[in-house]
Amino acid sequence: MAGSGGLGGGAGDLQGAGPGQGTALRAPRAPLALVALLLGTYCLFALPGRCPPVARTPAPVPAPAEPPYASRRLGASGLPVASGPGRRRFPQALIVGVKKGGTRALLEFLRLHPDVRALGSEPHFFDRCYDRGLAWYRGLMPRTLDGQITMEKTPSYFVTQEAPRRIHNMSPDTKLIVVVRNPVTRAISDYAQTLSKTPGLPSFRALAFRHGLGPVDTAWSAVRIGLYAQHLDNWLRYFPLSHFLFVSGERLVADPAGEVGRVQDFLGLKRVVTDKHFYFNATKGFPCLKKAQGSGRPRCLGKSKGRPHPRVPEAVVQRLQAFYRPFNRKFYQMTGQDFGWD
Q: Which residues form the active site (predicted)?
């Protein structure tokens, strides 16, 4: 696919051959009731979820020290909570975005480092659960020794209007990591994830353009997330650019050790995670972790990662590339990095 930035789906159409350039895009016809049902099901999966219920707000737990690998238990929230010695601290670093950019892979790679302790689940505190309070949030964190870094990742923070202010109120020194990816590829990946949960969803084209043939529909979250420059504008009202590290999702696949090395530098950590920890899984199409000493097999991300993309018409891809181009260029200027998406 020319100029697609390595789209996994290739050229073609989810529902037959796509139109060429200059050809009007036709919206698929369907009974109104069926369309309403499918869109309602889509919203169930695509819109932000609710905060998990908790029985009570955990109080801060002071403790002196912790071995690097403490045991875990499930807290009242259903999220894993570390038990044992050490202290629960607010995260010094957050992976705040973006969805389908490679955030899960980055977190799992960083968890190899002995000085990184990270919450495995996404707590969604700064977008969905803020009313639970900071004590509840800190109670979810793994215990750490002095010198260790506490982290969590929730990729929806980057597109949440209130998240920068709330994080700044917690700590203005928080380090922020944003994994970004070609916004067209990211949107198709986002759609593929929802399609796997909602078979019969309208085509990518029908959702990406108003009425299936008009302007790009920025109200659709799969499109809106890729407006990175607009989201970053909101964050820069609260944090200086020096507090951010922007990780290339494409380079995280092509050179995981290099990108993880940049993250370790940003966090002030020794480069412990190196190329010796990775191998490329050709079946999945992304890097996996080599098996640790005493482990039975290598570690790869779950079946939901690396799923094939639906085939999207080339004309649709080109229209979205043209739409995103000015936003991408502004993002390059803001970050001082050219991600090579255009």
A: 100
To the question of whether residue 181 is assigned a binding role by annotation, the answer is: yes
Judging by beta carbons within 10 Å of its beta carbon (0-12, 13-18, 19+), is residue 62 exposed, middle or buried?
exposed
Pairing status of strand 72-74 against strand 87-88: unpaired
Cα–Cα distance for residue pair 94/156, rounded to 1 Å: 12
Q: Do the Cβ atoms of 289 and 300 come closer than 8 Å?
A: yes
Total Cβ atoms within 10 A of residue 282? 7
Nearest Cα to Cα of residue 90 among 146, 174, 156 = 174
Structure pTM?
A: 0.77
100 marked ligand binding residue: yes
Residues, the chain: 342
Residue 268 Ramachandran class (φ > 0 left, ψ -120 to 50 alpha, else beta):
left
Amino acid at 141: M
The structure tokens listed for 257 are 């050790």
Q: Does the active-site annotation cover 276? A: no
CA dist 130 to 76, 242, 262, Å? 16, 26, 31
Distance CA 21, CA 19 (A): 7
Per-residue pLDDT, 293 = 53
Looking only at the bridges linking them, the beta strands covering 87-88 and 143-144 are antiparallel
CA distance 86 to 102: 30
Q: Are 56 and 64 in contact (CB under 8 A)?
A: no
Question: Is 155 annotated as a binding-site member?
Answer: no
Q: pLDDT exceeding 70 applies to what percent of the chain?
A: 72
By three-state DSSP, how is residue 73 classified? strand
Q: Which residue has the tokens 């260790």?
A: 148
Q: Which of 100, 290, 291, 330 is catalytic?
A: 100
Across 233-272, b (16+ Cβ under 10 Å) vs e yields: ebbeebbeeebbbbbbbbebbeebeebbbbbbebbebeee
Q: Is 189 annotated as a binding residue?
A: yes
- pLDDT for residue 56: 35
| 112 φ, ψ (degrees, to nearest 5) | -70, -25
